[in-house]
Amino acid sequence: MPRFAANLTMMFGEFDFLDRFAAAKHAGFDAVEYLFPYDYPPEAIAEKLHDHGLTQALFNLPPGDWAAGDRGLAALPARAEEFRASIDTALRYAKATGVGRVHVMSGLASRQDAAALDAYRDALRRVCDAAGARGLDVLIEPINTRDMPGYFLDDFGAAADLIAELGLANLKLQFDIYHRQILHGDVLMGLRELASLIGHVQIAAVPDRHEPGTGELDDMRVLRELDALGYDGFVGCEYRPAGRTEDGLGWLRAFA
Ligand SMILES: O=C(O)C(=O)[C@H](O)CO
Ligand SMILES: [Mg+2]
To answer: Which ranges does the record mark as transmembrane (predicted)?
Structure first.
C-alpha cells in the first residue's frame, strides 16, 4: 500500500511554512515532503517533524538561484563546484530530518550537449556516492517542459537509460504521474515497465495540477495499479489545492 506524503510546498499554503507540518498531521498525514528546506535551520525542521510525529519522505538538493531561473545544477558543467557544495548542504538537512531519499534536479540544458551529459553523469556518481555512504537513495525526475522549458531531464526513457547505464545501486526514478501523463501518457504501462527503478512517486491531476481525481486521468485507477505492483514507498501529494487544502482531501479519504 503506498504511503501518502503531503507536499508542503504546494499544500497547506493557508499556513506559514513551519505551521504546515501541524496542519498536515491534523489532516491525517504521517509523512511530508517539500521542494526545499533551506530557508530554515535544519533543527527547526527536525523539531516540527518530531513534535508532530511526521516522517520526512523527500526533499531536493539546493537548485542554485531559483528566483534567477536556476532549476538545478547537476547538468551544468560551469556550476560543478556549487553542485558539490549543495551535496554537503543537503546531507546536513538529511541527517537532521532522517529523510531516506533526496531529489537531484538536473537544471536547464540540452541532453544533446555532450558536456552537459558528462557533467550530469559525474554529478550523479558523486551524489550517489556521498548519499549512499549515509544510506540514502538519490532520485532523478523527468519534468515536463511546458512547466519547465529547457529542463535537461524531460524524458522517462532517457532517465531509465541513464539509471541502467550508471548502475548505481542507490540511483532511482522519481515517477511523477503528472509529468508522465503530460510527457508521454501511457501511465499504467510506464509504471509497469519502470517499477523496479521507482524510488518515489508523486501525483497531481492533469492538466491543472489540482487534486487527484479532478483531471483527465483516472487517478484512483493509477493508485490501485501502484498497489497491485507492490509499490510500498511514498506517494507525494504534489498538487496545488483548488481551494482550502483540507476541503479537497476527499480523494485521499476515498482511497485510503
Ligand atoms: O516539479 C516537480 O514535479 C518536482 O517534483 C520538483 O521537485 C520541483 O520542480
Ligand atoms: Mg514532482
So the answer is: none
Question: Within a 10 A sphere around the Cβ of 216, how many other Cβ atoms?
Answer: 11
Q: Is 238 in the active site?
A: yes
**Computed from CA positions of residues 77, 82, 85, 89, in that sequence, does the dihedral angle turn out positive or negative?**
negative
* SS3 call for 245: coil
At 57-72, the pLDDT tens digits run: 999 999 999 999 999 9
Mean of pLDDT over the chain: 98
Ligand 1, atom 6: closest residue by C-alpha: 35
| Separation of alpha carbons 130 and 83, rounded Å | 13
Q: How far is the CA of 169 from the centre of ligand 1 (A)?
A: 23
- Asked if residue 61 lies in contact with residue 70, where contact means CB atoms within 8 angstroms, the answer is no
Q: What does the alpha-carbon distance between residue 221 and residue 228 come to, in Å, rounded to a whole number?
A: 10
- Cβ pair 60, 54 in contact under 8 A: no
Domains of the chain: 3-255 (3.20.20.150)
- What residues contact residue 145 under an 8 Å CB cut-off, 6+ apart? 151, 154
C-beta 141 within 6 A of ligand 1:
yes
